[in-house]
Amino acid sequence: MNLIQLGWPQATAAIAAFAPLSAAGFRLGRIAQEHRGRYQVYTPEGEWPAVLTGQLRHSTERLEDFPTVGDWVALRSPDPDGPALIHHCLPRFSQFVRKVAGQQTAGQVVAANVNTLLLMVGLDGDFNLRRIERYLVMAWDSGATPVLVLNKADCSADPAQAVAAVAAIAPGVAIHAISAATGVGLDALAPYLQPGQTIALVGSSGVGKSTLTNQLLRRPQQATQAVRSGDSRGRHTTTHRELMPLPDGALLIDTPGMREMQLWVAPDATSDGLEDTFPDVEALAAQCKFRDCQHQAEPGCAVQAALAAGDLSPQRWASYDKLQREQQWLVRRQDGQAAANTKRRWKQITQTLRQKHRDRGGT
Question: What is the pTM of this model?
């Protein structure tokens, strides 16, 4: 594929960053797959296996800054008997990030340089409006355009009612009810599948991402499994992320199902996903009498007045409050982690300088 087919014109920041690297003899590629530190990279010369240089690996401090699927990279051509070497990861114009599972305070980039995020939800027993709000906060934070895809419309008694319920909590977001299994409604996704555009499928296990991927590829590439009958929860069938060219010219990143989707707050974020997802709540909060209103029992609280009048549902307010507290907790953790990392770095620098001084015969 050429650079236009790979989506290069979309990556304006990467284009500027690559200019001096190109003059220095580096080649350009886009990461298609990642498997435990080994990569497959699309280039105009073909698909190459690749690894990171030791310098890039050791100089990259944050987990989310390591190259991932969808990234543009500067690399050296492979030797006849070895992989290509990735020297630089170029700036991203979007990145969908979640906090890694467990106690570690770090972000995991699920997909990079994505134009449109197709957030898939199943219209079956696993349908959950609060989960959709969480996905939307993360999607707006990513810099990509979120689109809600309500799959399994053939399993729903009233798909129109589900669309209306989702529309009430997703202002400004396009919503499409489809059936990936039967192909019904797939024509509505055509505007997002333009040549050179990158889309990513994100959602829980069992929502039908692999089935939709096969439909868009027009071939049965991804394995699929039935969901559990008791709760409509899915089993992991996609085990890795992969950037795949579609027949229409778009590029698709299919991602494994995510049972745990914790928020992540990027230190250099330029948007606020919470504000974009809950503009109604943010507007009410701005009308409170006191700027530091906690929206509990303060006089003149517009949020509590809206709850009492029925203009704001308790479930939506509880979701907003929970996600806001989660963000605040995460920012405190990140600040503490950053301070600890800085202290550790200076300690290592001091130890290195002292060792060099001793090696030179100093006291």
Answer: 0.84
Question: First and final CA of the chain: distance in angstroms?
Answer: 61
What is d(CA 200, CA 69) in angstroms, rounded to the nearest whole number? 11
Alpha helices (runs of H) in 83-221, residue ranges in sequence order = 129-142, 159-169, 209-217
Q: What angle do CA 111, 112, 113 make, to 5 degrees?
A: 135
**CB 46: neighbour CB atoms within 10 A?**
9
What are 194's two structure tokens?
């333009």
34 φ/ψ angles, rounded to the nearest 5 degrees: -135, 130
* Other beta carbons less than 10 A from residue 79's beta carbon: 9
Asked if 8 and 50 count as a contact pair (C-beta separation under 8 A), the reply is no
Question: Which amino acid makes up residue 41?
Answer: V
Smallest Cα–Cα separation from 69: which of 38, 6, 112? 112
The rounded distance, in Å, linking the Cα atoms of 14 and 304 is: 46
Collapsing DSSP to helix, strand or coil, 122 comes out as strand
Residues 41, 342: Cα–Cα separation, whole Å: 33
Q: Average pLDDT by consecutive 10-residue portion of the chain (363 residues)?
A: 94 96 97 93 94 95 93 90 93 92 82 96 89 94 96 92 96 96 95 96 91 90 49 50 94 82 74 90 94 90 96 96 91 67 59 68 62
